[in-house]
Structure formats: C-alpha cells, structure tokens
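Figure 6 in text form: structure in, sequence out.
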C-alpha cells in the first residue's frame, strides 16, 4: 500500500507555482487554493486534495472541463497515497474525456498490451494527432515523470503535435498514473519497446521519444539502446542521480519511494538498493545510440549536471545545459521548446 510522508504544502507551492500557472490554470485561482491549503494529507477543508478538488468542482459546474482536469490533476498530486487522490485521478480522466471536443488535435484513447519479463500489463495511452492527420508522419512517444503525468502535460503535447505534424502517443511511466507499478527500469524499457512497436503501425514507421524528468530516464534508455529512431531527454536522471547516498529535495524522496512500490517511508539505505538497476552506464558505454537531444537546467536540485554533461561528445548527440534555471529548465520553457522544435524538424524525417 502507498504511504504518506512529512511534506509541507507551502514548499510545494513555492517549487511548483510556475508549473501550475503555465499549465493553463488562472493565477488568481491557484492563489486562492494556495491561501486555503494548510495540510498535505487531510481530506477536509484546508487539505490539499480537498481544496484543489473544490476548485475543480467549480470548473465542472461551469462546464470548463479542461480546467477541471488540470485542477483534479493537482488534487491527486504528488502520489496516489489515499482514496481521495485516487478518486481525483478518476475525476481528472472523466473531465479530460469531456474536454476532448474542445481539443485542437484529434484524440484517441487506446489500450496497449505489453508483455514483459515480469508478466503482462495493459497500458492506457492517448494518441493526439494534428489536423489533417493521415498517418504518413512519424509518431512521438511522450511521457512526464513520477508526479506529472500524461493528462497533466496535455497542453505541451498538443502543441508538439500542432508544431511538428507528428502524432503524439502519450503514456505514464511504470508506478505512476494509469501505468501499473512499481517503477522499474527494465519494465519501463519493455513498455517503451512495446509502445514503439505499436506506434510504428500508427504512423509512417518512424518513432521518436520525448521524456521529461523521470520520463527522460526512459527516453535516454530508448535512445542509447536504439529502441526508437531519435530521442529527446529533458531533465532525465541517468547515472549520478542514482549514486548511493543521494537525497532529494522538496519531498521527492516520498514521491519516488511510492513509485518504487514501498509501503512505508524508506530509509536512504533502502532507496539505495533500488538505484543500481536504474544507472545507465552499461548503455552509455555502448555506441549504438540514435540521434539524441539532451537538455536540463544547470541549477537542477534533483538531477546532477553530470547526467546532462555525460552526453557531451557522443555521436549524433546535442546537449544543452541552460544556466540560471532548475529542473527541466521550466523557467526557460520557451527556449527549451524552440531548441526542441528546431531539433525535431531536422530529425523527424531523417532516415535512420
């Protein structure tokens, strides 16, 4: 069973406020929730899930389904530790599906059967296609990380489909959202390979992979292993982030611990036992990678600079460590997107 841990909501608001607003929520509504929340785990007035859900319910009454989906997305944050958050995820999906007619892209919800070393699982995915889609363009696999999932990133993934002309197949990484856990590097690689195979039949046969934050770990893996045709890694941990003795800021220990499947707050020693299988040194030592774009902020408190700079000098690899910004370079998102779109334009049609 999931567990809760000591976490101050004011710290999360300080870290995530820009993300909350940039996703499309009105700043005044976020400020109202921020002023009301006093506890992370209580499902009653003053509690995180309660106040975010109350905001979402207001949007529902006014048939503002996309905003309701975003608000319920924050209500379930940062992990599905209780029934209230699991209900918030269900309501987010319900509102997201009601918002589909207003999307700027075509939409299809699909169930992909994945057979891996530890058995089979069904992975719900969303296919976003630009206007006029005929299946003659590449497919981009796309995911967020351990606490921001496919529906939370809809606005970004929609923009990618519109700007690039590619179909975007979005999914949650193992141990998060609608993807059965626990999070495991091998299972995640199995899922990406299965989704890539499914995606090749949906588009023109060419598949790219965009991973953000912990999702960037899996796009780094797929790119280094050659499981896709090109890969974008934004803020992905690949090696130094999994060093023994590493700790995380802003409650990330608890978020990661839940994704890993712990039923109690793990000690640093227990977390350290999980890390060796995630380190991508065996793949980094190979020379089979596809074209890759690797980016992050130089001031990232979660992922060491090494995990970006280790890609410098690799064949077919472009690296950007942006100064004066943090995890995933969120505060410089326009620059990140410009670099990404320019790179995708050069690589989406190139023969492998």
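Output sequence:
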């Amino acid at each position: 069973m999931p567990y809760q841990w000591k976490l101050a909501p004011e710290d999360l608001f300080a870290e995530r406020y820009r993300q909350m607003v940039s996703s499309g929520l009105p700043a005044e509504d976020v400020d109202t929730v921020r002023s009301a929340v006093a506890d992370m785990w209580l499902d009653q007035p003053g509690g995180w899930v309660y106040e975010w859900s109350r905001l979402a319910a207001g949007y529902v009454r006014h048939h503002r389904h996309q905003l309701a989906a975003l608000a319920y997305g924050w209500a379930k944050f940062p992990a599905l530790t209780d029934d209230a958050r699991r209900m918030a995820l269900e309501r987010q999906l319900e509102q997201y599906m009601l918002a589909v007619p207003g999307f700027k892209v075509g939409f299809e919800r699909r169930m992909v059967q994945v057979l891996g070393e530890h058995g089979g699982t069904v992975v719900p995915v969303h296919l976003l296609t630009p206007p006029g889609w005929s299946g003659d363009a590449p497919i981009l696999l796309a995911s967020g990380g351990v606490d921001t999932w496919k529906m939370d990133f809809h606005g970004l993934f929609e923009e990618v489909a519109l700007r690039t002309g590619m179909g975007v197949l979005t999914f949650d990484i193992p141990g998060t959202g609608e993807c059965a856990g626990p999070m495991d590097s091998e299972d995640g690689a199995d899922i990406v390979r299965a989704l890539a195979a499914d995606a090749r039949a949906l588009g023109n046969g060419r598949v790219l992979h965009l991973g953000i934050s912990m999702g960037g770990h899996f796009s780094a893996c797929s790119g280094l292993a050659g499981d896709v045709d090109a890969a974008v890694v934004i803020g992905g941990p690949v090696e130094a982030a999994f060093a023994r003795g590493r700790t995380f800021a802003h409650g990330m220990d608890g978020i990661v611990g839940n994704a890993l499947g712990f039923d109690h707050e793990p000690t640093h020693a227990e977390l350290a036992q999980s890390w060796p299988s995630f380190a991508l040194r065996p793949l980094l030592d190979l020379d089979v990678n596809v074209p890759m774009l690797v980016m992050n902020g130089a001031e990232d408190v979660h992922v060491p600079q090494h995990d970006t700079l280790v890609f410098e000098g690799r064949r077919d690899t472009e690296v950007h460590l942006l100064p004066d910004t943090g995890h995933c370079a969120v505060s410089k998102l326009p620059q990140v997107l410009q670099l990404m779109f320019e790179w995708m334009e050069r690589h989406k049609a190139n023969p492998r």
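Caption detail: The chain has a mean pLDDT of 95.
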